[in-house]
């Protein structure tokens, strides 16, 4: 896998959708998709959909906002890595167990490990686990004028 790829965590993608969660790192990750390719585990689409639905239920966004963001996300260079259930069970469950994380979070770490590519995440627990396991954290180039 080339340096043009990275694993995109749901925390980063959802921050693009909610103004109160926007972060300079996440915005730089989004901008980097003009030249880079993101790869996500199969859990990503339902996880993003659930985050958007929770935003609607909590009155942080509307159905129209969700539709707009889903269309926007679908237009980005994000590939879903589909694995067979036995392979996932064999790799993700032990990783989650060993590091005290959810299987959802372990899916992102496992993908970055398996593909030998960096992980873009805003989750402190994922960042810490990545460091322990030797997974590089994705560092997009700063856009001009970014602080």
| CA gyration radius, whole angstroms | 15 Å
Shape category: globular
Assign the CATH topology.
Rossmann fold
Kindly report the name of the CATH homologous superfamily.
5'-nuclease
Cα separation of the termini: 30 Å
For the record, the count of structural domains works out to 1
Average predicted local confidence, pLDDT? 92
Strand content: 5-15%
One letter per element, helices H and strands E, the order comes to EHHEHHEHHEH
So what's the CATH class?
Answer: Alpha Beta
Main beta-sheet strand count, sense and barrel state? 4 strands, parallel
Summarize, please:
About 55% of the residues lie in helices and about 10% in strands.
Give structural notes:
The protein is of the alpha/beta class and 147 residues long. The chain has one domain (5-133): Rossmann fold (3-Layer(aba) Sandwich). The chain contains seven helices and four strands. It has helices spanning 10-17, 24-32, 44-57, 63-74, 85-99, 103-115, 124-133; strands at 5-8, 37-41, 78-81, 119-120. A four-stranded parallel beta sheet has the order 3-2-1-4. The longest helix is centred in the middle third of the chain and has 15 residues, at 85-99. The radius of gyration is 15 Å and the shape is globular. It starts with a strand and ends in a 14-residue tail after the last helix. The model has no long low-confidence stretch (mean pLDDT 92).
